[in-house]
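Q: Joint fold for the lines below.
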Amino acid sequence: MLENYLPILIFIGIGLVVGGGMIAAGFLLGPHKPDSEKLTSYECGFDAFEDARMKFDVRYYLVAILFIIFDLEIAFLFPWAVVLRDIGMFGFLAMVMFLGILVIGFIYEWKKGALQWE
Amino acid sequence: MNFEIPNFMLAMPEIFVLGMACFILILDLFLSERSRVVTYLLTQATLVGAFLLSLGLYSSARELTFSDSFVLDPMASVLKLAVYAAVFMVLLYSRRYLRERGMFRGEFFVLGLFGVLGMMVMISAHSLLTIYMGLELLSLSMYAMVAMQRDSRVAAEAAMKYFILGAMASAMLLYGMSMIYGVTGSLELGEVSAAVAGQGSQLILIFGLVFLMVGVAFKLGAVPFHMWVPDVYHGASTAVTLYISTAPKLAAFAMLMRLLVDGLGALQPQWHDILLLLAILSLGIGNVVAIAQTNIKRMLAYSGISHVGFLLLGVLSGSPEGYAAGMFYAIVYVLMGLGGFGMVILMSRAGFEADQLEDYKGLNERSPWFALMMMFLMFSMAGVPPFIGFWAKLSVLQAVVDANMVWLAAVAVLFSVIGAFYYLRLIKLMYFDGPLELSPFRPSPDVALLFSVNALAVLLIGLFPSSLMAICRQAMGL
Amino acid sequence: MSFEQILFYLFSGVLVLSAGAVITVRNPVHAAMFLVLCFVTTSALWLLLEAEFLAITLVLVYVGAVMVLFLFVVMMLDINLARMREGFARYLPIGGIVAATAVGIMGLAVGRINFGLDVWPAPPARAADYSNTRELGEQLYTTYVYPFEIASVVLLVAIVAAIALTLRTRPGTRYQKIEEQVVVKKSDRLRVVQLESEGRK
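A: Joint structure:
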């Protein structure tokens, strides 16, 4: 089975060589004479006003978390789709139940306004 | 493919609770703030319905279904009934408390129900995977419940600690399970048990056992995995503390029994030693550190740790009598814990948490009846006859003595004598110190009634302990 | 040493080093990137164990979704880097001793003598057309249907918990009401007023 994945390994190797090689070549061949002005972050020619880090509305994370939950749910669908013919009605209904429970979660978040943007 | 359609009837209570929890979750969206009480009533009705269903399914037989990953035996039935009853009382106690603090929200009850479902799954689990899933369901609900009081910094801190430590403990448990699965080649506890018996005490099995024990000890809150207990009990709002300190202990006891007795019964000599260490440390540290506490929630948390030590004594004696004693202790502890934190809820009012020991000073002058009820509870926790706590301690000690460990019984008695100090101190504060405030004590009638019933139950069951003991013995097949 | 063993040691070496880097590098963004490297190498290890579905899921869900969120949080959050590292040196000795002891004991217990390939022989390698996903699917939706359904309940609780803990509706927020926008008619928005025309004076 593992022999199927040999191409991926080769690609990883090529990727490492190409990616690493480019950075190394740039580092070795390009001129670099850094000074303090060059090293500051560029903000339209002004001095940087403040730190890039700031307080962020927790809502953004909520959307991201909800995305991850449904992403995980999708992961369960792949093996199911592969064996759908073999597992019969029971396996089909098992997934219907699984999705049904998550649909309840979806109704909840929709109705609750978690998907609304202000 | 040889696959048997599972017998859904056996899991009817679980299915019912799940269905109702989903229904309540959706229904709550359509309720206005004024009719929120419907959510509460439906939640209570769900618990009653599940109680009746489990009662109807009670039989002395042991039945497996869902490809042997689900078991319904008398122990499962009894523990589930106790869980419903405990959570029912928790919600009764906390209704007014939640209202006064603006926490009377549908999510609280829905998460509570999902927690109950997690406990039911754990109690009826017959495979490593099911135990883990049930545990995660319960833990996730509890983390969210602790964090729900969003404006409170202590609650957020408690939730954070609980979540991080709980995730670590789950990881340990999972690692141990994976080791045991690797050696035995099965997740199902019956097959694990057969494989373990065939292989004897392999080093890898013991390795897995150690990690399992870390996870279980954390969930029970046994020393040295107890650090979260006082912080979480203290930081969470009292209603949530009431929830997490009572019913989940029953589920943790079931998890202990399923893993150690049903699954790794052949390793009894090994887990006996581990439990011995956990029990002695819990008794010692729980009782001694509780003396130094000035916050009653922290004090009760340490007292809970010492009670867990007692519970472990029953299990480690390794006999069905000992298991029955452990189960009896667990149920009694839940009853007393309900009373203990119920007392804090009773004393509290909007803007006043009543979680300092001083708040109880001179309660006798303000309300002799409640002082008396609290005295009952404290005596019971300390193990003074004829209260129920005494019989629980006695049955556990009897099992320990029967297992030829008289010294251990002596150690346990010694520590509970030390422990009696802080219970008696509270009684002294109530009866012999002057009150800090002179206003008459006017608790809300429903909580007052419930608390009185709770405290009187501690006395009454203590006078007639044989029926509850008989149920526990029957559950263990005696 | 076979080729697979060389790969195993290569990937686990990278895994251990990058896991160490996660907790020691100064910049949290770099730490998150090292965590991504951890996941990728773990998935390579899983692939060596012929668990291809898990390997792919790990990359898909953890690297693809969880780490993106993580990086997002780490980049945006207002964290004080200096304060975060406070106490690291103080707790390093005791933490190091505990960790070293635990690793030592674990190494002794599951090391070569007790858990080596001569004690627990490796299962034979699978044929090229073996599908781990199929194998998993056949079990997951039938034999393990009970834990499978509980998994969906856990996800549901995660949804409820995430919303209950983070959602805060402010009063007076205005939302777009798409259905109202769609059904709107000209007469709702437009008022035609007849004005007397006035001649130039």
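Q: Anything notable?
A: Chain B has 20 helices and two strands. Chain B touches chain C through 37 residues (CB under 8 Å).
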